[in-house]
Amino acid sequence: MVVVSGSNSGAMAEQLADALGWSHHALETRRFPDTEGYVRIPSTLIETVRSEPVVLVSNTFPDSGIVETLLMLEAINDVRRGDLQNLREIGPQTLPDVGKGVFLAVPYFGYSRQDKRFKPGESISAKSIANLMAGQCDGIIVLDIHAPEVLSDLKVPIAFTSAMPELAEHLKATVDPDFILSPDKGAIARATQVANQIDCEFSYLEKTRIDAHTIVHKAKNLDVAGKRVAIVDDMIATGGTICRAAEALRNQGALQVHAACSHGLFTGGAIARLLRYVDGVHATGSLANARDVISGGPALARGVHQLMDELGLSNN
Ligand code: R5P
Known about the structure:
Elements: E1 2-5, H1 10-20, E2 23-26, E3 28-31, E4 37-40, H2 43-51, E5 54-57, H3 63-81, E6 102-106, H4 125-134, E7 139-143, E8 158-161, H5 164-174, E9 179-182, H6 188-198, E10 201-204, E11 207-211, E12 214-217, E13 228-236, H7 240-251, E14 256-264, H8 270-274, E15 280-284, E16 292-294, H9 297-311
Parallel strand pairs: 1-2, 1-5, 5-6, 6-7, 7-8, 9-10, 9-13, 13-14, 14-15, 15-16
Antiparallel strand pairs: 3-4, 11-12
Helix pairs in contact: 1-9, 5-6
Bound molecules: ribose-5-phosphate.
Ribose-5-phosphate binds next to strand 13 and helix 7.
């Protein structure tokens, strides 16, 4: 099999290809002056894309990532179907259909946070975006999505994978935490997994989100005095959740506080804000970010294997 990528996930695609021992190729992507996107499978890759199943690594974030992902899937599907007709009549215009075998690996699934309808009339954005992608591929791999349940009834199989094993390995090697904290109930499963792997204490906070920038944590006694604590979450956006949790930890005597996540969105000066509260910030490169210190490749590779096993394609 072969790994390809567009403009937003080249580094993750490289890491995935390394983890699987496959080759990685960049597709041609650029922007027209009005910012609309253009994608093309270079002539040198047409045979590669047709001769083996393809894993496209691409984020549905920011919005331009959604369009680029759809355009790349469409182009790959056309090439695999043998539909190469072009106005300049370059190369063969048609070739035999080589059948199914287009998979999408999404390091950061944009729009995953609107996973429920909180008020009548809202769109469930996570589902809408997933359905768009599912219409253009034969299976999807998603890394550390906030609420996997929202993608439960897609028309193609989906593999959920997580970078928590690599995150635990990294924290153990660099921080050696005594205590892992989940900043809210939603991150308990992930943070517990990290605590178990490191073999250290664990607890969680109860968070109420007032608005996108305001977080309130319920007071809780944590046995963290003199300890090195790592707060583990799926994503850090404004950093508000981590800053409030770090404050609670410092007030209770934590010696060191670190923040670790799969997805470092780090919006609006989040890193500077975080560094006023924590001793270190650690993330994967699911999104390009200044704290990318954990490889997401092995996690994506586990997702690919899971999907291939499910589809009976493991020998490819
Ligand atoms: C929400 O429950 C997520 O797991 C994160 O805790 C949240 O998205 C982080 O956002 P922020 O950094 O803006 O507090």
